[in-house]
């Protein structure tokens, strides 16, 4: 605007005849100058925006590259059923898919704190975990543990026992423990010559891995019992459960017996009252995992629970055993867990603070850390 005023002051006003033409010419010139100014400012603004966007993109790319170098890749959150032959992404950061607020006993692990940092799983006696679910559960319950172990470079196999998970057999028709654990014993029996595995049993899965240890002691490197039935020879799982029964026992309240052969015959299976599931099994677990369990759990066959195990020192006794206690467990209380430990002491006992009966849901990171630690014990 200042330039236009200076131009008008330097020249006298023209005659009346030419004034209209001059005003028109000046207006046009003014319009062109303003147009050029606005265009120039817009170009400068666009250039600045482009430069800012380019810098921002460069910064994000650099951060992404640094995250990849530090091993901070995304966690696989799939809840689909996953079975053997899981290839691992060794540099990925395992993250719990839990939606709960984290406690100090199960913090989010930073890249420099990862338990799998520096681990050479190929140098271990075995890097193959076989996960065995408890009564009513299925292989699906291990989805967080499977992902975390695979990310750390381990091979993981999760077994659906007969009539459990996606196994189509009718639970009411299971007559013995051998029939119930057949998918597990078949799997262990078919392992290549010289290959060993780490068996992990939860809940009633403890009795199941004990049965497999007695059959194939030389194919089992270690056995891990997680809030599990760890029996002595001549005991049944029912013997253990009976030690804690009382009128106020939550497990007793939750049990619903099924009589497929009629009420005048023994129960064929038992289910759990869905309204008591959270308090009994998942009192520290995320709501979404409770929802998964409520639509996925199946009845537990009754005959295997009644069956007494025959365990020998020359077979079962030569396998290294480890126990993981769950301190907030309402199904197999810490008192009952310690009674089993005292009756048949394992090599080492670990404790999971803040864990309910299902630590694969409530404390997935802490459970993963313990499993890896056990795999490294020489």
Give a nutshell description of this structure.
The protein has 378 residues and is an alpha/beta fold. The chain has a domain at 125-240 and 247-374: Rossmann fold, CATH 3.40.50.1820.
Descriptive notes:
By secondary structure, the protein is of the alpha/beta class. It has a domain at 125-240 and 247-374: 3-Layer(aba) Sandwich (Rossmann fold). Helix content is 40%, strand content 12%. The chain is built from 14 helices and nine strands. It has a six-stranded parallel beta sheet, with helices on both faces. A three-stranded antiparallel beta sheet has the order 5-6-7. Strand 3 (197-202), helix 6 (205-215) and strand 4 (220-226) form a beta-alpha-beta unit.
Number of DSSP E strands: 9
Q: In percent terms, what proportion of residues is strand?
A: 5-15%
* Mean pLDDT value: 79
Shape: globular
Biased composition (Polar residues): 79-90
InterPro entries: AB_hydrolase_1, AB_hydrolase_fold, MES/HNL
Biased composition (Low complexity): 24-34
Region (Disordered): 9-46, 79-107
List the helices and strands and how they pair.
Blueprint: H1 2-10, H2 16-69, E1 128-132, H3 143-151, E2 155-159, H4 177-180, H5 182-189, E3 197-202, H6 205-215, E4 220-226, H7 237-242, H8 250-254, E5 255-258, E6 269-272, H9 277-281, H10 287-296, E7 300-301, H11 302-306, E8 320-326, H12 334-343, E9 348-352, H13 359-362, H14 364-376
Parallel strand pairs: 1-2, 1-3, 3-4, 4-8, 8-9
Antiparallel strand pairs: 5-6, 6-7
């Amino acid at each position: 605007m200042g330039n236009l005023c200076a131009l008008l002051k330097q020249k006298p006003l023209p005659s009346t005849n030419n004034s209209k033409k001059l005003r028109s010419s000046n207006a046009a010139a003014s319009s062109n100058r303003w147009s050029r100014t606005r265009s120039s400012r817009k170009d400068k603004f666009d250039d600045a925006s482009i430069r800012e966007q380019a810098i921002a993109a460069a910064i994000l790319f650099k951060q992404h590259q640094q995250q990849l170098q530090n091993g901070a890749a995304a966690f696989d959150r799939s809840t689909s059923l996953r079975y053997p032959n899981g290839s691992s992404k060794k540099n990925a950061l395992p993250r719990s898919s839990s939606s709960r607020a984290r406690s100090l006993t199960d913090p989010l692990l930073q890249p420099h704190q990862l338990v799998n940092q520096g681990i050479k799983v190929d140098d271990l006696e075995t890097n193959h975990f076989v996960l065995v679910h408890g009564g009513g559960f299925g292989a699906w319950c291990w989805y967080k543990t499977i992902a975390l172990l695979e990310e750390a470079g381990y091979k993981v196999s999760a077994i659906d026992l007969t009539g459990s998970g996606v196994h189509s057999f009718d639970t009411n028709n299971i007559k013995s423990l051998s029939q119930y654990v057949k998918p597990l014993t078949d799997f262990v029996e078919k392992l290549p010559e010289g290959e060993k595995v780490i068996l992990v049993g939860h809940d009633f899965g403890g009795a199941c891995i004990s049965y497999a240890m007695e059959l194939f002691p030389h194919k089992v490197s270690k056995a891990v019992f997680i809030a599990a039935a760890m029996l002595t020879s001549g005991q049944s799982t029912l013997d253990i459960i009976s030690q804690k029964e009382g009128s106020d026992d939550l497990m007793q309240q939750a049990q619903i017996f099924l009589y497929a052969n009629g009420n005048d015959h023994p129960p064929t299976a038992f289910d759990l009252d869905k309204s008591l599931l959270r308090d009994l099994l998942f009192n520290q677990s995320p709501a979404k995992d409770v929802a998964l369990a409520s639509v996925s759990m199946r009845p537990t066959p009754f005959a295997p629970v009644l069956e007494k195990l025959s365990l020998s020192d020359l077979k079962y006794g030569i396998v290294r055993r480890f126990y993981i206690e769950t301190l907030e467990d309402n199904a197999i209380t810490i008192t009952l867990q310690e009674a089993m430990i005292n009756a048949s002491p394992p090599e080492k006992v670990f404790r999971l603070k803040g864990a309910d009966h299902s630590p694969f849901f409530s404390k997935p990171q802490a459970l993963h850390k313990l499993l890896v630690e056990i795999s490294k014990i020489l």
